[in-house]
Amino acid sequence: MNAVLRPDTPQMAHQPLDSRGRPLRDLRLSVIEACNFRCGYCMPADRVPEGYGLDAASRLNFDQIETLVRGFARVGVSKLRVTGGEPLLRKRLPALIARLARIEGIDDLAMTTNASLLAPHAQALRDAGLGRLTISLDALEPARFAQMSGGRGQVERVLEGIAAAEAAGFSAMKVNCVVQRGVNEDQVLPLVAHFRGSGHVLRFIEYMDVGSCNGWQRGQVVDSDSLRARIHAQWPLQDLPSQYTGEVASRHGFIDGQGEIGFVSSVTHAFCGDCHRARVSADGHLYTCLFASTGTDLRPALAHGEARFTAHLADLWSARADRYSELRNEQRSARRGKPVEMFLIGG
Ligand code: SAM
Ligand code: SF4
Ligand code: SF4
């Protein structure tokens, strides 16, 4: 396989384009497959047993992760998002963050977390070089929040985590809310009221048909357009331009100057054309689409060192043709194999 190459910078090796001309810019790296929550849309408690994913031996170690990220940086990745499962369950996470923050070419280092364990770790993560935080929060009402976390979470802990992160110097955090019809639609306006003017950016995510254990149905999706109209009726909004090519969320500013919100509309507005993202599971498998069924084990190539790994990665990316969201209606019925679960590749 021959990678289509873009002009190299001195530090960079091959910077391949995939078969649809898309470069690789963005890596979502799962550091753990376990989670302390059981959100029904991701890891339902009746499908994923207690204690799932606690086999540390199958995970990439920090040396492997560092080599892997160096390789990704050499093929063009500049944005790295650490995720899970719940990344704060990974032991010595700040030490890993410190290693990743030093890698040449990575100029945006972020993490997605449910924030229930964030408060005691926020300062250490900031000191280690973590640049940005995205926090998942589906409800403010305590009973609803607890129910949506599979009976495991308390909203107070998440709000404490956000406060601790602010005190540690994280600003303009993203707060993600997955909206499900009949489950938490009524939490949307209270969440907007809570975060308006805070400097953080609340983003509503359409419930996606990722994996197979959540039992997704199209009727459970709340379209971003209708949600925007509901919010606009109370707090008028204006569309804002995207900040960079391939930005996942559309941006909408409050006309009264109280900040902005976003919508991630993978179901109703496919954005595959600009998709520059790769995902790696905690056990070192590459997924070139959120909706893939099979991953490629990167560990054999990693064992040959950074240079060989980088060349292998360039070949893998150049063969990529994914555009599931654009073809959702045809592909859902034709899907072969079991699609990978969100908690394995981190969103
Ligand atoms: N545990 C961390 C958390 O919840 O932030 C990180 C991993 S979680 C898989 C990453 C993101 O995926 C979360 O914001 C979560 O809400 C989102 N997510 C999970 N399943 C989803 C689904 N079926 N549709 C849309 N978003 C989903
Ligand atoms: Fe855990 Fe995040 Fe999935 Fe919820 S969305 S079950 S917090 S991995
Ligand atoms: Fe990217 Fe796949 Fe999502 Fe399309 S469906 S935007 S290719 S991850």
From TrEMBL:
Name-wise, this protein is GTP 3',8-cyclase
Binding positions for [4Fe-4S] cluster 1 per the UniProt entry: C35, C39, C42
Q: How is the cofactor bound?
A: Binds 2 [4Fe-4S] clusters. Binds 1 [4Fe-4S] cluster coordinated with 3 cysteines and an exchangeable S-adenosyl-L-methionine and 1 [4Fe-4S] cluster coordinated with 3 cysteines and the GTP-derived substrate.
Q: Which UniProt keywords apply?
A: 4Fe-4S, GTP-binding, Iron, Iron-sulfur, Lyase, Metal-binding, Molybdenum cofactor biosynthesis, Nucleotide-binding, S-adenosyl-L-methionine
- Subunit architecture: Monomer and homodimer.
User: Which InterPro entries does the protein's record reference?
Assistant: Aldolase_TIM (IPR013785), Elp3/MiaA/NifB-like_rSAM (IPR006638), MoaA (IPR013483), MoaA-like (IPR040064), MoaA_NifB_PqqE_Fe-S-bd_CS (IPR000385), MoaA_twitch (IPR010505), MoCo_biosynth_MoaA/MoaC (IPR050105), rSAM (IPR007197)
Per its record, the protein catalyses: GTP + AH2 + S-adenosyl-L-methionine = (8S)-3',8-cyclo-7,8-dihydroguanosine 5'-triphosphate + 5'-deoxyadenosine + L-methionine + A + H(+)
Q: Which PANTHER family does the annotation name?
A: MOLYBDENUM COFACTOR BIOSYNTHESIS PROTEIN 1, MOLYBDOPTERIN COFACTOR SYNTHESIS PROTEIN A
Write down the top EC class of this protein: lyase
Amino acids binding [4Fe-4S] cluster 2: C272, C275, C289
One BP annotation, GO: Mo-molybdopterin cofactor biosynthetic process
Return the SMART domains for the record: Elp3 (SM00729)
Give the Gene Ontology MF terms in alphabetical order: 4 iron, 4 sulfur cluster binding; cyclic pyranopterin monophosphate synthase activity; GTP 3',8'-cyclase activity; GTP binding; metal ion binding; S-adenosyl-L-methionine binding
Question: Which of this chain's residues are annotated to bind S-adenosyl-L-methionine?
Answer: Y41, G85, S136, M208
**Which co-factors does it depend on?**
[4Fe-4S] cluster
